[in-house]
Amino acid sequence: MIWQQVQSLAGSYPLALRGLGMTVVLSLISLVLGTLLGFGLGILRTGGNRLISAAIGAWVDLIRGTPFLVQIFLIFFILPELGIELDAFTAGIIALTNLAACFICEIVAAGIRSVPTGQVEAALASGLSRSQRMRQVVLPQAMRIVLPPLVGQYVLLIKDSSVVSAIGLTDLTRVGWLVVQRVPNGLLVFFLVGLGYFIVCYPLIMLARRLEQRMGAAHGEVQL
Amino acid sequence: MTKTGMIDFRGVNKWFGALNVLRDITLSVEPREVVVVCGPSGSGKSTLIRCINGLETIRDGDLVVDGQRLGDPATNMTRLRTEIGFVFQSFNLYPHKTALENVTLAPIHVRKIPRAEAEQAGRELLAKVGLADKVDAYPAQLSGGQQQRVAIARCLGMRPKIMLFDEPTSALDPEMISEVLDVMVAVAEEGMTMMVVTHEMGFARKVAQRVVFMDAGAIVESGTPDEFFSHPKTDRSRAFLSKILRH
């Protein structure tokens, strides 16, 4: 019985690989875009303009305070009403990028705020422009604080990507739903689905742990 | 506008909330002049020099630095700051950069000096402050006195017209104070325009043309070091001197 199911599952491996591929591609694109956007938002959040900072803060709170499933439905079903046609993949990328950007924004902002005022004053006093201060002085120091939680956040976001199966994207989770209809052993199928996520996430978990140890070392210099 | 000193305060006032931290300051510093500012803590002396490079803004009055009026839309503050070196009490070296990188950062990115040339100049400056063997050290690997000397070299790397020092030796262990003061004396003797907030009276006697005594945000007394230390004119300055010269 079990043996037959395993054999039947083995036949589904091309589908499983496609699902894993979709999860990886979706996560990779969203995390890259979300990181770029998140850093931009984090820098603006801590910048001098109060209105921009408050607007970003409100948006971040809204996104962090609502379920991702609801966000993805809103994007997928509401935007077409406004005349913006979206396929599921694009909707998934937008939703996941937005979620990533909001969490990363807060991590980056906290990192920037952790840099002592004296550092900014020293950079100001030597005539560095705003962008030079950011690039040369503030961000390299903020990265020490930012990196470990950033990588940890990546893990959470990869797992959150499973929600895109709800709008019909054939990611790893949806492959699980499809396969379980043919092979009625949910325990086995979803054990394998979970294993798929774990294989993607585990290296990141290890990386986050190593970064944390390195950053924790007293006054250790971090070469980026 | 009449041609005036390198740094010109005219009727400058500043408040922190309800607190009047600078009261009607009028003070002119000539080119190549060294002015020591002293006074009890909270008297506004740090605020005074932080206004000069715009780390603090003034409420009213005029502050003209190197011919440019601060707060004037025509004044490019970032440009003006490149002409003003500022040495902090807590050094504020960039911890992720080596001594040499600390010194060359602004010359390379702000002055647009080619890297090789900036590094050559940076090495010479570090040698000048006695740290030729520390060019590749990170701030955390240096003593306080060494860090402060790197910070001075970092300012000199921009070839400023003015150097401001905000209690440069207050955070140092006693045995490191003289190595920093020696460097400051050398800078003064090269004809730098300097304002130095310090209680190092030996330094003041040696290189300052003028000592300015502040209390409660106002300039109470101003004179040559000799006049000030030997014949203080006000009760407040006498009380202050008796405290710092007691031991």
TrEMBL record, chain A:
Chief site of localization: membrane
Compartments, as annotated in UniProt: Cell inner membrane; Cell membrane
GO molecular function: transmembrane transporter activity
Superkingdom of this protein's organism: Bacteria
CDD domains in alphabetical order: TM_PBP2
UniProt cross-references to SUPFAM superfamilies, sorted A to Z: MetI-like
Gene3D superfamilies: MetI-like
Pfam families registered for this protein in UniProt: BPD_transp_1
Record has Membrane as a keyword: yes
An example Gene Ontology biological process: amino acid transport
Topology with respect to the bilayer: Multi-pass membrane protein
ABC transmembrane type-1 domain residues: 20-208
Protein keywords: Cell membrane, Membrane, Transmembrane, Transmembrane helix, Transport
Coiled-coil region(s): none
Gene Ontology CC terms, in alphabetical order: ATP-binding cassette (ABC) transporter complex
TM region(s), chain numbering: 20-44, 56-79, 91-116, 187-205
Similarity field: Belongs to the binding-protein-dependent transport system permease family. HisMQ subfamily.
Protein name from the UniProt record: Amino acid ABC transporter permease
Organism: Mesorhizobium helmanticense
From TrEMBL, chain B:
Organism this protein belongs to: Mesorhizobium helmanticense
GO MF annotations, alphabetized: ABC-type amino acid transporter activity; ATP binding; ATP hydrolysis activity
UniProt entry tagged with the keyword Transmembrane: no
Name this protein carries in UniProt: Polar amino acid ABC transporter ATP-binding protein
Pfam annotation, one family: ABC_tran
Family: Belongs to the ABC transporter superfamily.
Any one cellular-component term (Gene Ontology): plasma membrane
Location (main, coarse): membrane
ABC transporter domain span: 7-241
UniProt cross-references to InterPro entries, sorted A to Z: AAA+_ATPase, ABC_ATPase_HisP-typ, ABC_transporter-like_ATP-bd, ABC_transporter-like_CS, MetN_ABC_transporter-like, P-loop_NTPase
UniProt cross-references to PROSITE patterns, sorted A to Z: ABC_TRANSPORTER_1, ABC_TRANSPORTER_2
Compartments (UniProt record): Cell membrane
Membrane association type: Peripheral membrane protein
Entry keyword set: Amino-acid transport, ATP-binding, Cell membrane, Membrane, Nucleotide-binding, Transport
